[in-house]
């Protein structure tokens, strides 16, 4: 088949699998996709890529001494591996595939449908009967961890040994030696590459889960928000794999629906949100995968970075700061605003316990909790609004 025939079969749904290809957003569509570039890719971002405003901050604080690998939204990608449902969405929305490198076809079958239903039903039972909440929480953990394990990068796993001076030279001279870290005066931690690596995980499972997650987030923004809400009435503030925080100009999403799209919205609403016509439907759909549920609402959000935000103006404020204990005294609204307004950073301490030589010991770790540096998009001179990277 020619490349065009392959793309036609993907658009029609006749081909299901993965495609390695080069893909781009045409120049005429870049303004349309500027707020949320549709192509997700891991790439090294350097100080020359992040725009003048953030580059000046990075140079002043020596915050980006070398390029950093990160996940971004982009207008183009080379040799990117895409699941055909996501690629089909790209093609339907005007993106152009310039070259297909290879394709692998799979048989389409919902082999984990029963597993997904068991997890959802267990959580519904937990909502109805508090005595089953432990089972519901356990099934939630099983459901969330099942696919994540399949994409474990076993090539990065190491053998770690703790040794003293009498054995250190032997390990350093081992052909599989990687790194040495002194712990105390005569005790060292040695990292060794594994002699044998078994690549035995079904990575296609986790890959497709994350591809479908990307697809769903794109559908919500471009096939729901852009369709039913005027761009002047909402703005995305922060997004993760399966969640989006957005500011709207009304008290609820219903208030900002385009008047001429109200009837269409009512007909399609159940495809995006849990039904609210009866309590039974509301409770059932609350645990249905793929529907968007209200996680939090309030007056505002200070979003500094991925997984680093402070939501305020509600009975219970919501705080996220990856790698820092959420109960840290440094994670306050004032500190988040201070970082945003002063282009500064805030340090915090992580405290915990670890087992060392059969003894439980406490540790204190100093780290940067809140940082002004943001490299996933170019930050404009106002220090708040952003635009896409040119990579």
UniProtKB/TrEMBL annotation:
InterPro entries: DNA/RNA_pol_sf (IPR043502), DNA_pol_palm_dom_sf (IPR023211). Coiled coil: none annotated. This is DNA-directed DNA polymerase.
């Amino acid at each position: 088949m020619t490349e065009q025939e392959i793309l036609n079969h993907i658009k029609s749904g006749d081909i299901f699998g993965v495609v390695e290809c080069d893909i781009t957003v045409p120049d005429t569509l870049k303004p349309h996709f500027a707020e949320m570039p549709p192509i997700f890719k891991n790439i090294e971002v350097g100080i020359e890529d992040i725009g003048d405003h953030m580059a000046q901050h990075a140079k002043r604080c020596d915050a980006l001494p070398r390029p950093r690998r990160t996940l971004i939204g982009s207008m183009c990608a080379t040799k990117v591996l895409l699941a055909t449902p996501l690629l089909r969405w790209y093609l339907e929305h005007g993106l152009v595939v310039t070259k297909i490198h290879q394709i692998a076809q799979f048989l389409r079958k919902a082999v984990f449908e029963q597993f997904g239903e068991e997890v959802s039903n267990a959580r519904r039972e937990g909502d109805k009967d508090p005595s089953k909440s432990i089972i519901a929480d356990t099934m939630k953990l099983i459901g969330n961890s099942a696919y994540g394990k399949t994409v474990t990068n076993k090539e990065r796993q190491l053998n770690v040994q703790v040794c003293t001076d009498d054995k250190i030279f032997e390990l350093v001279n081992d052909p599989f030696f990687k790194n040495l870290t002194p712990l105390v005066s005569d005790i060292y931690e040695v990292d060794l590459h594994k002699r044998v690596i078994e690549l035995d995980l079904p990575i296609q499972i986790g890959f497709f889960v994350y591809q479908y997650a990307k697809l769903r987030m794109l559908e919500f923004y471009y096939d729901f928000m852009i369709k039913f809400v005027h761009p002047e009435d909402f703005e995305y503030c922060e997004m993760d794999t399966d969640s989006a925080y957005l500011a709207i100009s009304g008290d609820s999403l219903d208030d900002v629906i385009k008047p001429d799209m109200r009837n269409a919205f009512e007909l399609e609403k159940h495809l995006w949100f849990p039904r609210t016509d009866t309590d039974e439907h509301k409770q059932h759909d609350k645990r249905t995968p793929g529907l968007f549920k209200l996680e939090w609402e309030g007056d505002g959000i200070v979003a500094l970075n991925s997984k680093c935000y402070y939501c305020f103006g509600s009975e219970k404020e919501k705080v996220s700061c990856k790698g820092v204990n959420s109960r840290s005294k440094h994670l306050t609204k004032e500190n988040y605003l201070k970082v945003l307004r002063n282009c500064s950073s805030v340090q915090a301490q992580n405290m915990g316990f670890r087992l060392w030589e059969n003894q439980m010991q406490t540790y204190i770790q100093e780290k940067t909790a809140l940082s002004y540096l943001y490299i996933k998009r170019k930050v404009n001179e106002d220090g708040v609004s952003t635009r896409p990277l040119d990579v």
